[in-house]
Design a protein that fits this description.
Keywords: Calcium, Phosphoprotein
Family: Belongs to the PtdIns transfer protein family. PI transfer class IIA subfamily.
Pfam family, one: DDHD
GO cellular component, one term: cytoplasm
Strand content: 15-25%
CATH topology of the largest domain: Rossmann fold
Organism: Popillia japonica (Japanese beetle)
Radius of gyration: 29 Å
Distance between the termini: 50 Å
CATH architecture of the largest domain: 3-Layer(aba) Sandwich
Largest sheet: 6 strands, parallel
Number of helices: 16
């Protein structure tokens, strides 16, 4: 077994069972059980202490790295060898209270374990070898930051509130509680200079909620934000868009509508042909691009990196708050809030067949809902199914009357650009083939727009050391 929660289930049964809690656990119908897990896995648990409490005093077997120990590291794996190597723990198998003195004493007078005790343990053991094996885990993995924050869209004049969560380790195992976090904003994006805003303290859930005071509120525009943990200088980057009323936007669901493979978390999932061009078309018409996903916010950096590598136009990204059991409900709540609280107008929306209920519930008509992939016959009446893919759909949009430019002042205050996070510009296309169906000379013929847009959203690395020095000195 690898990463199995079987031990947790068995422990729960023993605790909740009204029967004798000292009864043996039923032995499985196999010769040997191997319970392998990562030490940082919050789901996996040890089996050996459930069969014999004495094994809680022994660490699990560390699986040696093959590159370092190709023939093994010499640790005993057989049950009898382990008992003989730890006689100070197992030499008294009578049920009595263990004390620190008795465990550490080596002059108890009994050097060998009675055969009767060994036989009793072998009868209830799940095999003839040890069962718990801890796989190699790089040092510091549990301290790996997984900070996340959703991009913010707010109507001008309303409170400008940002929320970020600061966690560490896989599956957000460790919460940063009671730590100071410095908030910075880049008001003048072309200059690349960060402005200090305030310092907040994380709550017991690792969250920071901050509302800009009136004297520091932002005007119309798109602003990069950076929240830096003062203790270890780890940070989270996101954007805030301050938009005028009746801002028109186009919504894209990342899951299923962009990726041709099953998951964004793969090495380099394929992107559906023509998807980038359709998003770029709507951006060129002046619409605000919104990306939604039901994925947890712990995947924020990975998903945004995938969008950047495939040259997706810049947009505001919304993730679910942690592991959600209702990802479609999250999308519905998020879009409804934009429409009713911030006056956003959704021109059209793209997604998979699962997103039809979301887009219908926010008031979109079938001609405004575009579905990519498989759809049932019943769903054809609820949305426009792009059975021929994005390429044919783009030709329809480019035709006369296929689409219109965005109306209002939002297209004048929200600039066009591409995703660009620290360290991504140089490798953006290194691991992904070009997904654009436009001729290559279109970009080359107007290099200023591309250069400006990359510079506009690239958080400058030159200022970060100065920022860290300033924080360290404060």
């Amino acid at each position: 077994m690898f990463g199995s929660p079987l031990a947790l289930v068995l422990a729960y049964r023993q605790i909740s069972s009204p029967d004798d809690k000292t009864s043996n656990i039923t032995r499985p119908m196999c010769n040997q059980i191997y319970n392998m897990f990562h030490p940082t896995d919050p789901v996996a648990s040890r089996l050996e202490p459930l069969l014999s409490a004495r094994f809680s005093l022994l660490p699990p077997v560390n699986v040696a790295r093959y590159t370092k120990y190709p023939l093994g590291n010499g640790q005993p794996h057989h049950l009898v060898e382990v008992l003989q190597a730890n006689t100070q723990i197992f030499n008294d198998m009578q049920p009595r209270r263990l004390s620190e003195v008795s465990l550490q004493s080596t002059v108890s007078g009994i050097d060998d374990i009675p055969l009767q005790a060994i036989s009793a343990l072998q009868q209830k053991w799940w095999g003839n070898k040890r069962m718990d094996y801890a796989l190699y885990c790089p040092e510091g993995l549990s301290n790996f930051p997984t900070h996340a924050a959703n991009d913010v869209i707010v109507k001008e004049g309303l409170p400008q509130t940002i929320v970020a969560r600061f966690m560490y380790g896989p599956l957000d195992m460790i919460t940063l509680t009671g730590e100071k976090v410095d908030i910075h904003v880049m008001r003048d994006v072309p200059s690349g200079e960060w402005s200090y805003v305030a310092t907040e303290v994380t709550d017991k859930t690792g969250r920071v909620t901050f509302t800009f005071p009136e004297d520091k509120s932002l005007n119309f525009g798109l602003y990069p934000l950076k929240m830096v943990v003062r203790g270890d200088h780890t940070s989270v980057d996101f954007f805030m868009a301050v938009v005028p009323p009746k801002t028109e936007c186009v919504v894209f669901s990342i899951d299923g509508s962009f990726t041709a493979s099953m998951s964004v978390t793969g090495r380099d999932p394929k992107v559906r042909a023509g998807a980038v061009d359709v998003v770029r078309h709507w951006q060129e018409l002046g619409y605000l691009i919104i990306y939604t996903t039901g994925r947890p916010d712990m995947q924020h950096h990975r998903v945004v990196s995938w969008l950047s590598q495939h040259n997706f136009p810049h947009g505001l990204v919304s993730f679910a708050d942690g592991l959600s059991t209702d990802p479609l409900g999250h999308k519905t709540t998020y879009l409804n809030n934009l429409i009713h609280a911030h006056g956003v107008i959704i021109q059209c929306a793209y997604g998979s067949s699962k997103d039809i209920t979301v887009y219908t519930s926010i008031g979109l008509k079938p001609k405004q809902i575009f579905i990519v992939g498989k759809a049932s016959k019943k769903q054809h009446s609820l949305a426009t199914v792009l059975s021929e893919g994005y390429a044919a759909h783009l030709a329809t949009l480019l035709a006369h009357g296929g689409s219109r430019p965005a109306q209002g002042n939002a297209r004048m205050v929200i600039p066009r650009g591409y995703f660009g996070l620290p360290g991504q510009v140089n490798r953006r296309r290194s691991s992904a083939k070009r997904t654009s169906s436009y001729p290559a000379n279109v970009v080359e013929g107007n290099p200023l727009e591309r250069t400006f847009s990359v510079r506009r959203y690239q958080l400058p690395k030159t200022n970060l050391p100065l920022l860290g020095t300033q924080l360290g000195g404060g």
